[in-house]
Amino acid sequence: MMKLIGNHQDNHTFRRILCLGAHSDDIEIGCGGTLLKLIDHCPEIEVDWVVFSATGHRKEEALASANSFLKPVNKKNIVIKEFRERFFPYIGIEIKEFFDQLSKNCSPDLVLTHYRNDLHQDHRLISELTWNAFRNHMILEYEIPKYDGDLGNPNCFVHLDAFTYQRKIDYLMQHFQTQFNKQWFDEETFSSILRLRGIESNAPDKYAEAFYCRKAILM
């Protein structure tokens, strides 16, 4: 078990962050608190934010949410694609071509992406192509709670203070109202997983986000 963020001096290596999400709320659910904390610790950070599938109202929500989370960031690049939701494995060539171009234009210090054992087919493909495209980068895989029951045993934790934890949930509730018809999309769900990961990592303020780190080059 390791911490991604320690004291203020430890964060100088994460100057450019790439966030990848299959759908319009994935980044926020999986690593929104971590992003808020990184931005607070390093206001000059640069963020590339890519959502692969969002159209209509979902696209509007995605843009509004990204701009809220990244409000203090001066250097940000928000990209919203319109690949067909739930069909990613069947249009993989198109998405792979996008990844190839992305890797040429972006060399981040940290990549935040989906968990490789996520049972949602779109999430899983994004994770796979992340590792194909970014072979020499620090990659952390975030988790999304869902009906499939695919939560595992993460090995990397980011502790969240009460203010950061509440901002994450407030932004989710503010920006994704099209999801309110889903029984899992509520404050209780998001608080529960943050509290569970906080217990597992002995978080001083009770809450934490968790990630899967396959490889880490320390020196």
From TrEMBL:
A Pfam family annotated for this UniProt entry: PIG-L
Record InterPro entries: GlcNAc_PI_deacetylase-related, LmbE-like_dom_sf
A Gene Ontology molecular function term of the record: hydrolase activity, acting on carbon-nitrogen (but not peptide) bonds, in linear amides
SUPFAM superfamilies: LmbE-like
Coiled coil location: none
PANTHER family with a match to the protein in the record: N-ACETYL-ALPHA-D-GLUCOSAMINYL L-MALATE DEACETYLASE 1, N-ACETYLGLUCOSAMINYL-PHOSPHATIDYLINOSITOL DE-N-ACETYLASE-RELATED
Name the record gives this protein: PIG-L family deacetylase
